[in-house]
Amino acid sequence: MRHIDYTYTAGMSDDEIHERLRSHEMGVLSLRQGDDALGLPVAHYYDGKQLYLRLCERPGGSKSDAVAATAAASFVVTGGETSEESWSIVLRGPLVAVDDELSDAVLNEWFAPVRLFDEAVEDVVPTVYRMEIRNVGGRRSCGPLTA
């Protein structure tokens, strides 16, 4: 056995998972891009049943191609200031575009402002996807392993 530090973890209850998904607004979406993995920090909104993700396509971008090439995406939300407080939630499932169904007022209510990176507002195209959640799991740390 190696002499490194370990900490115990436990599964999170459905209530814990729902609360943390509702109270955090960013996570990492993993998609397929050719033979590579593409990890994107994205804003999300969770209403207690459905997970919505906002992706912003920029000129020359290929996020929509990556979504189309990915049969089942993975989305991860993490938190905790220390290893004793750490937690993570992983959701998996296909993504379905729902942007046309949502008004600008709803998008502004649900999501953090779009972050611009030296591009013009009119060059950024936000698109909202709903994840058809097929699998969800959450774990949280319980405390260090004591010898």
Give a brief description.
InterPro entries: Pyridox_Oxase-rel, Split_barrel_FMN-bd. This protein has 147 residues and is an alpha+beta fold.
Descriptive key words:
single chain; 147 residues; alpha+beta; Pnp Oxidase, Chain A; nine-stranded antiparallel beta sheet; globular
Q: How many strand elements?
A: 9
Q: How many individual helices?
A: 3
CATH level-1 class: Mainly Beta
Give the overall average pLDDT: 90
How far apart the termini lie comes to 12 Å
Strand order of the largest sheet: 1-9-6-5-2-3-4-8-7
Structural class designation: alpha+beta
H/E element order: EHEEEHEEEHEE
Write down the overall geometry.
Answer: globular
The Rg value, from CA coordinates, equals 17 Å
Q: In total, how many domains does the architecture comprise? A: 1
